[in-house]
Amino acid sequence: MSDAIVRKIIHIDMDAFFASVEQRDNPDLRGKPVAVGSAAARGVVAAASYEARAFGVRSALPSVTALRRCPDLIFVPPRFDVYRSVSAQLHGVFAEYTDLIQPLSLDEAYLDVTEDRRGLQTAWATARQIRVRILEETGLTASAGISYNKFLAKLASDHRKPNGQFAVTPAMGPAWVEQLPVARFHGVGPVTAAKMKRLGIETGADLKAQSIEFLTRHFSSSAEWYYGIARGNDDRPVNPSRERKSSGSETTFDRDLTDPADIEAGVLKMADEVAVWCTERGQYGRTITVKAKFADFRQVTRSRTQPSTVRDREAIRATSIDLMRTLYPLEQGVRLVGVTVSNFEPAKAGMPLFDDAET
């Protein structure tokens, strides 16, 4: 990136999105600890309101644990059709300010506002106005991070949550990164953070002190990324054409299942959900993967790749069942199944939709 051009990147992140939508639509839930998900024994929290987070309730937490931490927790089932509709409203607002929009999920996106379309002079003023527009359009609050690259903008959006914004300028960026714990860095997950801690790397300054040779020895292909972000560097552009590479759905059963008919009913339901997603968006893949998690939490996957994109729901269903049956006979019960379609590409005219080629 030329020294003469400093990008202006905004990362918009909705505040407790799923739970906030539920509280917006049901006044009785406002001000109360709410979890989106299932309270069943095998349920998992998909999202938690800030009132619930005060008790340590977080997404991906088992529902049993969540209720133990917060006995008054109110569970509501997810309404993904509503969340998708609100997400479309958000993108309508974003489009008023820039064409360079890179969604990360239903409730967050990067925006490149280097071109001042609305004449607001600064990215700070642009972010503030976007947040006002979101509140007007949806009745929901959003937080924003503003910086000269995507890495710093995403870090910044967490800094004034909820319903706030924070800017990291070029002058402050490198020093600001140094004082942060590496566990907060985008691209450093819990496993990597634990490994870094064993190596004596706990802050950005610790990471910056390591040579590229040291990082390559311990982190292989990720070394250059870690070397760069420790210095506040990230040259990735906001990519509005970034394509989704897969679509998947999974479910955790209320009890461990051993009957193939019960297990396959779950597989078919997940296959149908993925097929609907692909059809609605006109995106089709060549690879179908089935995942199963057993009672001891051991997880296995089976995949099959076709020579052309799979556009037929029955083909997805049939392949998913075939792949599941490769795991029989079962040595123990199954607690979770999932189906994913990946390897997206445009369908080729005249080619068969499906055959038995297997990876």
UniProtKB/TrEMBL annotation:
<dbReference type="InterPro" id="IPR043128">
    <property type="entry name" value="Rev_trsase/Diguanyl_cyclase"/>
</dbReference>
<feature type="site" description="Substrate discrimination">
    <location>
        <position position="18"/>
    </location>
</feature>
<comment type="subunit">
    <text>Monomer.</text>
</comment>
<dbReference type="GO" id="GO:0003887">
    <property type="term" value="F:DNA-directed DNA polymerase activity"/>
</dbReference>
<keyword id="KW-0239">DNA-directed DNA polymerase</keyword>
<keyword id="KW-0548">Nucleotidyltransferase</keyword>
<dbReference type="Pfam" id="PF00817">
    <property type="entry name" value="IMS"/>
</dbReference>
<dbReference type="GO" id="GO:0006261">
    <property type="term" value="P:DNA-templated DNA replication"/>
</dbReference>
<dbReference type="GO" id="GO:0003684">
    <property type="term" value="F:damaged DNA binding"/>
</dbReference>
<keyword id="KW-0460">Magnesium</keyword>
<keyword id="KW-0238">DNA-binding</keyword>
<dbReference type="GO" id="GO:0006281">
    <property type="term" value="P:DNA repair"/>
</dbReference>
<dbReference type="InterPro" id="IPR036775">
    <property type="entry name" value="DNA_pol_Y-fam_lit_finger_sf"/>
</dbReference>
<dbReference type="InterPro" id="IPR050116">
    <property type="entry name" value="DNA_polymerase-Y"/>
</dbReference>
<feature type="binding site">
    <location>
        <position position="107"/>
    </location>
    <ligand>
        <name>Mg(2+)</name>
    </ligand>
</feature>
<feature type="binding site">
    <location>
        <position position="13"/>
    </location>
    <ligand>
        <name>Mg(2+)</name>
    </ligand>
</feature>
<feature type="active site">
    <location>
        <position position="108"/>
    </location>
</feature>
<dbReference type="InterPro" id="IPR017961">
    <property type="entry name" value="DNA_pol_Y-fam_little_finger"/>
</dbReference>
<dbReference type="GO" id="GO:0005829">
    <property type="term" value="C:cytosol"/>
</dbReference>
<keyword id="KW-0227">DNA damage</keyword>
<feature type="region of interest" description="Disordered">
    <location>
        <begin position="234"/>
        <end position="257"/>
    </location>
</feature>
<dbReference type="InterPro" id="IPR043502">
    <property type="entry name" value="DNA/RNA_pol_sf"/>
</dbReference>
<comment type="similarity">
    <text>Belongs to the DNA polymerase type-Y family.</text>
</comment>
<keyword id="KW-0515">Mutator protein</keyword>
<protein>
    <recommendedName>
        <fullName>DNA polymerase IV</fullName>
        <ecNumber>2.7.7.7</ecNumber>
    </recommendedName>
</protein>
<comment type="function">
    <text>Poorly processive, error-prone DNA polymerase involved in untargeted mutagenesis. Copies undamaged DNA at stalled replication forks, which arise in vivo from mismatched or misaligned primer ends. These misaligned primers can be extended by PolIV. Exhibits no 3'-5' exonuclease (proofreading) activity. May be involved in translesional synthesis, in conjunction with the beta clamp from PolIII.</text>
</comment>
<dbReference type="GO" id="GO:0009432">
    <property type="term" value="P:SOS response"/>
</dbReference>
<keyword id="KW-0808">Transferase</keyword>
<keyword id="KW-0963">Cytoplasm</keyword>
<dbReference type="GO" id="GO:0042276">
    <property type="term" value="P:error-prone translesion synthesis"/>
</dbReference>
<dbReference type="Pfam" id="PF11799">
    <property type="entry name" value="IMS_C"/>
</dbReference>
<keyword id="KW-0479">Metal-binding</keyword>
<dbReference type="GO" id="GO:0000287">
    <property type="term" value="F:magnesium ion binding"/>
</dbReference>
<dbReference type="InterPro" id="IPR022880">
    <property type="entry name" value="DNApol_IV"/>
</dbReference>
<dbReference type="InterPro" id="IPR001126">
    <property type="entry name" value="UmuC"/>
</dbReference>
<feature type="domain" description="UmuC">
    <location>
        <begin position="9"/>
        <end position="189"/>
    </location>
</feature>
<keyword id="KW-0234">DNA repair</keyword>
<keyword id="KW-0235">DNA replication</keyword>
